[in-house]
Amino acid sequence: MRVIRIAGLGLAGLLLAACSGQTAGTAQAVGAAGTAATTPGVPAATVAFEGGDRLSPKDPIVVKVSGGTLQAVTVTNPQTGNAVKGDLSPDKTTWTSDDHLRYNATYQVVATAVNQAGAATEQRAEVHTIKPAGVATPALFQPASNDVGVGLIIGLKFDHDITDKATVEKSLKVTSSPSQDGSWYWVSKREVHFRPKDYWKAGSTVKLETTTFGTPIGGEVYGGQDVTATYKVHDSWIAKADGKTHQIKAFHNGQLVKTAPISMGKTANTPPRGPTPTFNGTHTVLSKEEHKIMDSCTYGVCEGDPGYYSAPENWNVRISNDGEYLHENLKTVSVQGSDNVSNGCLNMNTENAKWFFDNFNTGDVVEVTNSGGPQLSINNGHGDWAISWAAWQAGSALRG
């Protein structure tokens, strides 16, 4: 049993006994007026504090008594004034905290116990929590939502580099109903994503839980506050856009419900920008905007540069971080269905663009083939689905 330091004595590894001024076989009872009485032959209650001089903030403070019962235990952080919650065991011999503690903090513990004769013993101590070199706090890559598509990607971004990825990955838990196997993939030293082999089943409930807080994760860095998130997957909406046929087909729960002509990004080396093909591979819907100014300056082609444009567009469904959208473009209606001339977006007429805007939402899937462009990367939106399942599994710190 590890024991915390007694306040004021500066000693570690010591079993804490009853109040000062008592000898074995004698208990001291403190009266209302501060007078003391002794009960010969009755041993004083002995209080011990389990823990250590540098406690992990995820571990509990434990107070135990022998030869009596605990009457009261208070634990306070004097830096914040906050009290730490805890529970007594049914026999009142053990008190255990059930709050997460803070890093690099001091907690004052006051325990009062009574022996078999009812004599009170008060003991004070201090608990010090560890001071890490850094705290890696995760943020959700995809906010919790009750309305996401089957292409949902779950992920976490940490604010510190993770050197012990395996330990972190063991602390991450994803469950789904109905059950579906999946795997984690480390995108970088700070970011990790999760997906199943195939798209999530329509109607699934998916839950993410982390237990990284208080865990050493390499380089004297510890895990920050844990996060949880629950996702409800709606009906399956999958669009298949083909750059060779210049058509996009929409499937609702596996049934074809819409076919529309499109114009993808141009592959010809025409001035002033040259080729601007749409990325091949599986995209997912990231966001939607009814009206948006499409400005080439967002990717470095600004006013005065060859190829600069700034144009209002309607019914915009974003499918990559690189500025790819499904949207209305009335200037290309004449070649929609026959030629690819856009700057990378999937152009449609007003009716078709609004239909996709109304029916496709965050996490729904748009599969692009035969665009003549490179593969969509994992850092360009949700390009995770473009990675083969074998390569995805190899990206896990536990499987790779």
UniProtKB/TrEMBL annotation:
Using the record, list the residue span of the signal peptide; answer none if the entry has no such feature. Answer: 1-29
Q: What's in the keyword line of the UniProt record?
A: Acyltransferase, Cell shape, Cell wall biogenesis/degradation, Lipoprotein, Peptidoglycan synthesis, Signal, Transferase
Q: Cite a single GO MF annotation.
A: peptidoglycan L,D-transpeptidase activity
Q: What Gene3D superfamilies is this protein classified in? A: 2.60.40.3710, 2.60.40.3780, L,D-transpeptidase catalytic domain-like
| L,D-TPase catalytic domain mapped to chain residues | 237-369
Q: Where is the active site?
A: 327, 345
Q: Which InterPro entries match?
A: Big_10, LD-transpeptidase, LD_TPept_cat_dom, Transpep_catalytic_dom
Q: Which domain of life is it from?
A: Bacteria
Kindly give the PANTHER family that the UniProt entry links to this protein.
L,D-TRANSPEPTIDASE, L,D-TRANSPEPTIDASE YCIB-RELATED
Protein name (record): Lipoprotein-anchoring transpeptidase ErfK/SrfK
Task: Please name the source species.
Answer: Amycolatopsis pretoriensis
